[in-house]
Structure formats: C-alpha cells, structure tokens
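User: Can you fold this complex?
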Amino acid sequence: HFPRHLKWPNNNVTFRIENYTPDLQKSDVDRAIRKALNIWSDVTPLIFKKLHVGNADIMISFGSKEHGDFNPFDGPDGLLAHAYPPGQGIGGDTHFDEDEQWTKDSSAYNLFIVATHELGHALGLSHSTDPGALMYPVYSYTPGFPLSEDDIKGIQALYGPNPNSKKVKPKPDAPNKCDPMLSFDAVTELRGETIIFKDRFYWRLHSQMPEPEQTLIKSTWPSLPNKVDAAYEYPEKDQVIIFSGIRMWALNGYNLVDGYPKYIHKLGLPKKVREIDAAVHIRDTGKTLLFTDEKYWSYDEAAGTMDSGYPRSIEVDFPGMGDEVDAAAYRYGFLNFFHEHIQYEYSYTSRKVIRIMRTNSILNC
Amino acid sequence: LPLPSGDQDSWLLAEKYLRRFYDLPAGLQGRQRSAGAFEDKISEMQSFFKLKVTGNLDDNTLELMKQARCGVPDVGEYN
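Assistant: Here's the predicted assembly.
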C-alpha cells in the first residue's frame, strides 16, 4: 500500500475516459478499461460508475512526454503509464503514455493488463515485490485472470472481499472453437462485428481481425447472466437485445439500457413461453423472428407488437432446416441458422436452404 | 577521472531511474555523500527486485532498469 494506506472513502468510485489512443478502436479502449475495473470489483465491494462529463474520481487519459502533471513520460518503452493514489484532484488519475503501441493482445503493450495494474494504484495499491503479481512494476503479458493472491490480499486489506462472496473465478476452461461438435448458444451482430455466445464466453468476430477474440461475458457486461439463450441487434436503436430464461436485456454498446432487464412476455409472448432459443432481426422487413422449440413468432419492431397469425411452424416456413434452432443471424439477405454442430445458410429471397456447413466454420475452423 | 562513455550512459540511466523510482536526491551534493546515496539506492532497488545486493551497478541491475515498467515509484509517497 501507499503510506497512510490511502484508499477511497466509499465503495462507489466514478471514472471517466477523457481521450482515446489512436492505436485501438474506441470500443476496444472502453472494453479494456471496463474489463480492468471489473477485475477489481470482482474481488471487492467496489462499484465503478462511468461519467461522460465533469470530474470523476479516476480521470483516465493518454498523453506523451510532459502531459500536464510535471511527471513526464519518456517516449516509446521505458515508462508505460502511471497513476496516482486515491485522493482529491489528481488523486486516482491514470495516465497512459501515448508514445507506446497499445494493443489487445500480446503483440505490444496490452492495454487491459497495464490498465488493471494502474487502476490498482488508483485504488491504493503500491508495487509488489512478487514477480508473479500484477502489481509487480515490470510489464509482462500473461493471458487469463491477471490477479495473484498477493494482489487480492492487498486490495482486500483496503476494501474487504466482494460481499456477494464472489469467489475469484479459477482460470475458466474456455470452450474450444474448433471442437467439431461445437454448438452456439446465441449469435448477434454488434456494430458491424459478429458476437457468438457460448457458455460463459463470447467470441468477437471482425472482418479485420484474423482470429476470433474470446472473452468472458461478465468481463464485458457484468450485468448479463453467465448464460445467453438468444440475441439480436436492432440497428435502428443501436441496441442489442439479449435473452436469458424469461428475461431480456438491452445493451447500447457496453452499457445496459435503463429499464432493463424486462420479461420477454412484454413483447406479447404468452406466459407459457419460458425461453427463447434464437432471435434475429430482418432489416429488410423490420421484423424480428423469435424461435422457441419448433415454432417461431414475428415481432414488428416499429409497431412494438407481435404480428398476428403466429406462432408458425419452423419446419413448414423454413424447409430443409430441421425443426429447432440454437442461434440465428441475418446478413446480406441470408439467414444463418445454427442447430447443434450444423449451420444452415437460408436464402430469404429464394426461400430455401442453399448451403450446409459446420457450426464452427464461422470461427475459421 | 571521466567515466568511459559507455559507463557514462549507464550511470546516467541508473541515476535517472533511481531518482524517479527510489527517491535518489536530485541536485549537487558533496562527492562523498552523493556516492554513498547512490550506492544505498542501488542496494534498495536490488533488494526490491530480489537481485544480489552489491550496491554496484552490475549488468543484472542495469538490465532490469531497461525493462518497460510502470511509472509509479517503488518506494514511498507518490504525489
């Protein structure tokens, strides 16, 4: 700890990202910072709220050389970042050296790793002499859960453990993307990327990313459950709707839309429906198709009502597709249906299955 | 005697490092005092990183000083 065991006086800490590095997409920086804060909130009672204007406890910024605090950076390598212990004014503020190459992987300096370390300082941790600790002063890239026992003991000495007795997750056994029997829980588009949910994880696919990136759902969206049944994007509102059991969440990027979660029956589904298997929004028609067991429903987004004449049979309306769906996505006029380890590409215009592939072919397997 | 240029660079790098991370006093001091302070801080850093504590600027110590790291000092108050 720092001298006098500096810490925040209460567990609600605000943060604000003042500017962004050009090395990464804005959403990547948002995600890295959110993931880093979630690592510390997982093991303490701390709650982090993001501000978009005004003064936050932890002001996060990128700058190079002399950047306004008389504590200049030194160009590429060497000093990567620094942060101030909890306190008024500059206390808690966290600065990253813009002269570094910030990355999401191990190719240069991983922003998530450095941010988790620096935010440890912003919460009151000083450096650790334990080379395996995150709070060790020298940078090293380690995949997986970044905190060592030393880090956890240190932060809990200041703030105590997480009251939900949230055990620190052991290194999760992530699903193997090239398992030939792999099936999906849900698939959705998100601002031009494809998000595939499986167990407690999601893969993020982007045309410019050679490899799908796998992350814990809760690392990015802590308010979501560990298991997603279905998901779809409604671009008109820049929202992604997530279904799990009888509840649904609306996400705007990485933030939960106020008023959610809601019950799925708000959409007009009968109470006997207890789970949505798959969901997909058809941009051309403005309809969202909701699949449950062997039937599906059509929801008119603009009117906010369920279309009449539903539910209808999946097998009758989508011939050649089998009678159940795990996940569905719509791209360029094609509906991609995923059921167990098989993926059906269905042409919405010619109304027939035109291609059958393995589910994980979408993951470059 | 003036240090050979290679040593000179290493010495300057070490002085900068120790000033930033181990609170080595800046500015001019008596020759005796500055050498003593320098050696003490080298020993402090070697102890932190679990290196052999010699008080001398040996290769291992210099190597570690060149590694990418956090800008927060390893000792004392940071403000």
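Chain B touches chain A through 16 residues (CB under 8 Å). The two ends of chain B are 37 Å apart (CA to CA).
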